[in-house]
Write a structure and sequence with these properties.
With 411 residues, the protein is of the alpha/beta class. The chain contains 15 helices and 18 strands. It has a four-stranded parallel beta sheet, with helices on both faces. It has a four-stranded parallel beta sheet with strand order 8-11-12-13, with no helix packed on it. A three-stranded antiparallel beta sheet has the order 1-3-2. The longest helix is centred in the C-terminal third of the chain and has 17 residues. The structure holds iron/sulfur cluster. Iron/sulfur cluster binds next to helix 7.
């Protein structure tokens, strides 16, 4: 254990051993005769911590609270995933970090947690701003009994993971249902759309990692959270090359920027296996000429279909939103409605627009007007019932003997 340690580091570990695993920095310094200069002492402590040989144990609450406790024992960590809809990468990296130090790690989903927990450290990750208040309240309550860290885009756009954690392979064991690898190859964006936090949070577009940093070799699919990888042409080529070489399916699930599509990158995109589909976004009606041009380039490269996020009710009227959806449909593309204001779900028109466009069976088989009429006069419900019956029969087919349905015959 002590190989490669300095004399000072060995003494620190020895004192900790004598003190049954825990002591404060003040006691350590006294035991080491007070003649150590502060800087080298703390450098030694930090170096031991980096090697995972000690860790800082901060006591919370009460007049005795001290931030200078050093511990040999392994800690227990609780990760609280307040509201993620996909596996939370930051928590998976924190889990990898703590497990590598020998700590025990548990995951809790949701914000219903007892206000007193038996853990040394708690991390809370909150993605959506509408959960921020509840997350802050929970953090405050828990901080009376343990060390608490609160982060995530819902509460804070500035807090990031330290570099030594950010570049760790995520601990996929934390989310056993996750059968794909997930991560960022780039952060930031070249644009600053008014409704988007990316530029404020992550800055100008820049590469951060290649796929090997977070790709678990057991997975055949990558979900990439890059916000605008086409803005970095060389980096895009490199990442696309890695995906192709490893024969992986890919989903750039934040959407690609169609305004940056050209013959060259369209050809590369056409050579990749997208799962479930290639995604773009059409947020502003004024971009129509660029969207039409981009779709032409895609088609010329052999990409016949893609899905488009359509941001509705952000500086646009209902008619303009519907126009974008119908235009995409006419061009053979799929539209997916994103409501800027979630309250609009209560609005019948937007609710219908969302249901119409986000369900393939409606979008491809009828117009929005037909869908609304069907909803009004009940035929939509009847059709849904028929469909349900057909599915039921498919699942549990009636007994058949020599091609004759015998379920109604009395024996
Ligand atoms: S292009 Fe996309 S990622 Fe970039 S600022 Fe606009 S919405 Fe955000």
């Amino acid at each position: 254990m002590s190989r490669g340690l300095s004399a000072m580091q060995r003494s620190i570990l020895q004192i900790l051993d004598e003190k049954h695993g825990m002591t404060s920095t003040k006691t350590l310094k006294t035991a080491m005769h007070n003649d150590i200069c502060d800087q080298s002492f703390y450098r030694s402590l930090n170096s031991l911590e980096k090697r995972g040989l000690i860790w800082w144990h901060r006591e919370h609450g009460g007049p005795q609270s001290s931030s200078g406790l050093v511990c040999l024992k392994h800690g227990s960590v609780l990760l609280i995933d307040a509201d993620s809809t996909i596996p939370n990468i930051a928590l998976m990296k924190l889990s990898a970090y703590h497990k590598a130090r020998g700590d025990t790690v548990d995951l809790h989903r949701g914000l219903k947690v007892p206000t007193k927990v038996d853990y040394d450290i708690v991390y809370i990750s909150c993605i959506y701003t509408h959960h921020a208040r509840a997350a802050r309240r929970l953090a405050k309550l828990l901080s009376t009994s343990c060390e608490v860290h609160l982060g995530g885009s819902g509460v804070d756009l500035k807090t990031t993971l330290p570099d030594e954690i950010e570049h760790l392979m995520p601990d996929y064991v934390l989310y056993p249902e996750c059968n794909y690898s997930i991560g960022y190859t780039m952060r930031g964006c070249i644009r600053s759309c008014d409704f988007c936090q990316v530029r404020g949070k992550e800055g100008y577009a820049h590469p951060v990692a290649d796929i090997y940093e977070f790709w678990d070799r057991r997975h055949k699919k990558l979900v990439l959270l890059d916000n605008n990888i086409l803005a970095l042409p060389d980096w895009f080529k490199k990442i696309a090359g890695q995906i192709k070489k490893e024969n992986l399916r890919v989903d750039w699930n934040q959407g690609l920027d169609l305004r940056l599509v050209n013959e060259e990158n369209a050809k590369i995109l056409a050579g990749l296996h997208f799962s479930p589909y290639m995604r773009f976004a059409w947020d502003d009606i004024k971009s129509e000429p660029m969207i039409r041009r981009g779709i032409e380039i895609l088609k010329a490269a052999g990409i016949k279909q893609a899905m488009f996020y359509v941001l509705c009710d952000f500086n646009s009227t209902f008619e303009e939103d519907l126009y974008r959806i119908n235009t995409l449909k006419d061009l053979g593309m799929k539209a997916f409605v994103m409501l800027y204001n979630k309250e609009l779900l209560k609005d019948k028109r937007y609710n219908s627009l969302m249901n119409f466009s986000n369900a393939r069976m409606h979008f491809y088989t009828q117009t929005f007007e037909e869908y609304c009429t069907g909803r009004e006069d009940g035929t939509y419900k009847l059709k849904a019932q028929e469909r349900k019956q057909r599915l039921e029969i498919k699942k549990n087919p009636p007994p058949v003997l020599h091609g004759i349905d015998i379920s109604s015959i009395e024996f």
